[in-house]
């Protein structure tokens, strides 16, 4: 996000296409929408993976009462 922070200030090492209007105070600013979306998706998948691991460990023998949350998070990812 810092590498694409603006045309005059910041590092401006990554040129991102404009996906939404920037700031009215800073003309020419491109908001880093796509990197933010990718971060959010990655965090969700990592959280689902962790939930699946915990639900798998919580099962006792062949009776796994955590199966609904396990399947839900597996299908969500």
TrEMBL record:
EC number: 4.3.1.1
GO biological-process terms attached to the record: aspartate metabolic process
Residues annotated as domain Fumarate lyase N-terminal: 1-47
Gene Ontology CC terms, in alphabetical order: cytosol
UniProt entry keywords in alphabetical sequence: Lyase
A molecular function (GO) term: aspartate ammonia-lyase activity
InterPro entries from the UniProt entry: Aspartate_Ammonia-Lyase, Fumarate_lyase_CS, Fumarate_lyase_N, L-Aspartase-like
UniProt KW Lyase keyword: yes
Enzyme class of the recorded protein, top EC level: lyase
Listed name of the protein: Aspartate ammonia-lyase
Gene of this entry: aspA
């Amino acid at each position: 996000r810092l590498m694409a922070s603006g045309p005059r200030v910041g590092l401006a090492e990554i040129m991102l296409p404009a996906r939404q209007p920037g700031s009215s105070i800073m003309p020419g600013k491109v908001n880093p929408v796509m990197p933010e979306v990718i971060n959010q998706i990655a965090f969700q998948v990592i959280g689902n993976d962790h939930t699946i691991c915990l639900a798998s460990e919580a099962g006792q023998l062949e009776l796994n009462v955590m199966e609904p949350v396990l399947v839900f998070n597996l299908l969500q990812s």
